Structure formats: structure tokens, C-alpha cells
Amino acid sequence: MTSNQTISSFQCLITFDFDPTNTTHLPASVVPKWISLIAINIVISPLTVLINLLVIWTVVKNEQLRSNSYYILVTILSFGDLLIGLVVQPLYAALMICFTVQSSYICELTMAYAVSALLCTAWTTVTMVIVSLERYLYIEHPLFYHTSVTSKKLMIATAVSSVLVGTTILSTWLQVSESIGTRQLPLILTFGPSFVVVFFCVTKIHLTARRQMRAISAQQESVAMKQSKIKECKRTFTLGLIVLASVACLCPILILKIVGVVKGNWPDNVRFLHGISLTLLHLQSLINPIIYSLRLSDIRSGVAKRLGCNRSQ
After folding, report:
1. Is residue 131 part of a domain?
2. Model confidence, pTM
3. Using a CB cutoff of 8 Å and minimum separation of 24, what contacts does 46-50 make?
4. Could you report the per-residue pLDDT of 265-277, keeping only the tens digit for each?
């Protein structure tokens, strides 16, 4: 049976271009590669949960950080990353195990993984867009920012946008044709414009922040005022690093989804690459809090303090 045919003997809402309950016709190297993906996700999952939990704990326990709009959004983004490690990665590892042992629960796990991954990805994407807009308004339109932007408004905007985007993508994705290529269109049409907005905002504020950094040393201000401005610039540069990491992790899956749209089904030599690209996408949820911890002194000191408390206990 060719890779362009959908297996009819395995009935599931999400169709495959191979029979997942009978992998004997696949190359012998497939199963060891699946096992390696299982091991990677099992190792990464608890680390992702731990470090994101530490970031969230740091912000929640610090009143000064808790009252800052930027750190509120960092907490929201970290919560989405925590769900990736707590729910999505274990489901993915379980799904790969089912593929390996040819379990009868493949359909249920596939649906659970696909739905949870879509919702968490929508949460993360929407939050990154709002973080970018928050930094853009703070850097480019400070008067409007201080008079109109509040933490409460940002939280409401994030929650409402995430629910709307998540449910829209999920309902559209479940109702479209069974073709693998057709299923990619709602994702591309949703996440593509989002990253255009993020890229524009980050590029604009990055250039402005660099000009401000050069001007800070020449300004006749107190040391405390200069340190405060430097901190704000560092937050902007941190967002730039997050976006770069996101691009690096998203590019493989985006390329493969475009291949899926063009080809209609995954070619045989692309199927394992799809698993690697999903694992890279999961890895982003570990990279994000590491960047926060390394670049933001408030987060770094808070995470170090919590780790110290854990050791003392």
C-alpha cells in the first residue's frame, strides 16, 4: 500500500497514511527512532514542569513582580509552557509507546494529544502576541501605555483571545476534510498572521530599545532611574530571544505542514521528521523559562531562592 492512501481498516476521526496498529510494513529503523523520541520527551517533561513552576512561583510570591504587567504575562506564558510539560508531552510519549507496541488505544491518545497540543499552542501564541503588543506600547507609546494598559486588562485580553482562538481552531480543524493537507490550513492561517505581528513588534521595539540603551549613559539621571530603564530594555531584549527560540523551534513543523498541504499526505521520508519537529516544539516550553531565568535578574534570583528552599527542606 502506498503512502498516499489512507488506511480504512483503522477507524478514527484523525486518519493516518499508514496503519498504526500494524507497523510491520514500515522500515525497521522506525521503531528505534520512536523509542528515542519517547525517551527524550520523558526526560524533558518533568524539567519543563519544574522550571516553569519555579518561574510562576517566583512571580506569585513577589508582590512587586505580581503588580508588573510584563511579569504577569510572563506568568501566563509560563503556565501554558507548564501545561505542555504536564499534559502534552506525557500524552505524546504515551502515543509513541502505543505506536511501538501497536496498542488499541491509539485513536483515543491521538485525539487527546492533538486537542491538548492545539489548545496549549493557541494559548502560547496568543500570549506571545499580547506580550509583544505590551512591549510595543510601553516602548513606542509610553503615555498611552501608562494611562490605558493595566494588568487586569491584559489578563482579560489574554484569556478571552486564547479561548476564542483555541475553540475556533479546534472546531474548524475537527470539521474540515480528513485530508492531512487540508487540516494544516486552519493552523497556518491562524499562527502565520500572529507571528507576523510578533515579528513586527519585536523588530520595532528592539531597534528603539537599542537607541535608548545608548542614550541612557548620556542622560543626567540618578543611578536608580538608569537601572530602571536598563531593566525595561532587558525585558524587551528577552522577548526578542524568546521569539528567536520560537522561530527556531517552529520552523521545522511549519515547513512540514506546508509539505503536508502541497503533498496531501506525509511522504515516507518525512514521517519521522514530523516526530522530531513536534519534540522541538515541546522543547520550546523548556527553553522559554530558561531564557527568563538567565536574562531577568528578578526571575533568576527568585528561582535560585526557591531551589535553595527546596534543598533546605
Report:
1. yes
2. 0.82
3. 46/85, 47/85, 47/286, 48/81, 48/82, 48/84, 48/85, 48/89, 48/282, 48/285, 48/286, 48/289, 49/82, 49/85, 49/86
4. 555 555 667 788 8
